[in-house]
Amino acid sequence: MVPVLLAVGGIVYDLCTPRDFTAIPFFTAAPLVAAPLYSFVGTVVTGAAAFVAAYAVHARFGLSPDADMVTEVVTVATVAAMAAVINRGVRRGDQRLASAREIAEAAQRAVLPEPAGQIGGYDIAARYEAAQADAFIGGDLYAVQDSPRGVRLVVGDVRGKGMGAVAAVAVIIGAFREAAEQEATLEAVAQRLERALAREGARRDGLDAFEGFTTAVLAEFPHGDGVVRILNRGHPPPLLLHPDGTVRTLLAREPALPLGMGELGTWPDHADEAGFPSGATLLLHTDGVSEARDAYGRFYDPEERLAGRRFRDPEALLAALAEDVRRHSGGGMTDDMALLAVRRP
Question: Which of 56-60, 91-95, 205-209 is the most confident on average?
Answer without folding.
Answer: 91-95
